[in-house]
Design brief:
Largest sheet: 9 strands, mixed
Radius of gyration: 18 Å
CATH topology: UDP-N-acetylmuramoyl-L-alanine:D-glutamate ligase
CATH class: Alpha Beta
Order of helices and strands: EEEHEHEEEHEHEHEHHEEEHHHH
CATH superfamily: Ribokinase
Length: 328
């Protein structure tokens, strides 16, 4: 394994219900989907998320192996988390959760990452001492629900010295009904991150009293280099210190939108890596990202989300699929 990208957060089994088909179970969770998206875009990926030693947990383990993703944690004695998704006639999903988000301590997780680094360092050396962990992504339930969210925060603090950080709040009021508490939690993660992605739904739920652009500007002041907001069928927009950019959504026949935002996130990180803007040593360069580079990021990520939305379930594009789609 060469330098790798890591994701920390929930993995669970989605049981999807719709008006047109019988319930179907598949592996999901926003961070898990981001990890799969990165792996399909041909990056080495490490995933830190808990699962139970049960049938659903074994389904998750098989999925990780099938994608070539390294699992940082072994199965534990608690049940695997489950999300029950109901699709409306437009393909939009609503969720109910049965969750356990208890992790080892931040110190234990740091040691696991360090142990992995010791194993992979010889293959990762390229005449520098940056180490194999290049970027760490966190978000969704894993960065909101206690007690695990506090552990994730500690892991991000430990990783910042070697890696850039990304964060997607993916806010669920059913899990954290206190909006003020959720705002404070999100802002603590935003202040630790370099790349932020959220949806307009997240912004409307967290900050109903102000415009989307005002929230983007407020978040940028907390420290990130880049704030991106996805707008579903209206596309996406991004803000950096260099300026603002927008991207229209690509015209497709939508199967459903499950995992579209996660495919967007994975493609964003992949594109930034291709620009040599990930890793702690590149943090200053990332903060200087141009509006032209931002526009490229948004276009690539929007195309990835469109591919995902053109098929049922969270199915991020492969690198070849994305490359071919970008040529059209």
């Amino acid at each position: 394994m060469s330098a790798y990208l890591a994701v920390i957060g929930e993995c669970l089994v989605d049981v999807v219900h719709s008006e047109t088909s019988a319930p179907k179970a598949h592996v999901g969770g926003s961070p898990f989907n981001v990890a799969v998206g990165l792996a399909r875009l041909e990056h080495d990926v490490v995933f830190a998320g808990r699962r139970g030693d049960d049938d659903y947990g074994r389904m998750i383990a098989r999925s990780l192996r099938a994608q070539g993703i390294t699992a940082l944690l072994e199965a534990d004695a608690s049940p695997t988390s489950v999300a029950r998704a109901t699709l409306d006639p437009t393909g939009q999903a609503s969720y109910e959760f049965t969750l356990d988000w208890t992790l080892p301590s931040a110190d234990e997780l740091e040691e696991k990452f360090c142990a992995l680094a010791r194993e992979t360092k010889p293959a990762a050396q390229n005449g520098d001492d940056t180490g194999p962990l290049e970027h760490l992504h966190a978000g969704s339930i894993g960065a909101m629900l206690q007690p695990g969210a506090e552990t994730v925060k500690g892991v991000l603090d430990r990783a910042r010295g070697v890696a850039t950080i990304s964060y997607d709040p993916n806010y669920r009021p059913t899990l954290v009904p206190n909006r003020e508490e959720a705002r404070l939690q999100a802002e603590e993660f935003i202040a630790r991150a370099d790349v932020i992605q959220a949806s307009t739904d997240d912004l409307d739920l967290l900050y109903p009293e102000r415009s989307h652009r005002e929230t983007m500007e407020a978040w940028l002041q907390l420290g990130p280099a880049l704030v991106i907001v996805t707008r579903g069928p209206s596309g996406a927009m991004g803000l950096t210190r260099a300026g603002f950019a927008e991207q229209e959504a690509f015209s497709i026949e939508v199967a459903d939108t499950v995992g579209a935002g996660d495919s967007f996130m994975a493609a964003t990180l992949s594109t930034l890596r291709g620009m040599n803007l990930l890793g702690a040593s590149r943090r200053a360069a990332l903060r200087e990202i141009s509006t032209d580079q931002l526009a490229t990021v948004l276009r690539t990520a929007a195309r990835a989300a469109a591919i995902n939305s053109s098929r049922f379930g969270a199915q991020p594009p492969t690198a070849d699929e994305l490359t071919q789609a970008l040529k059209s």
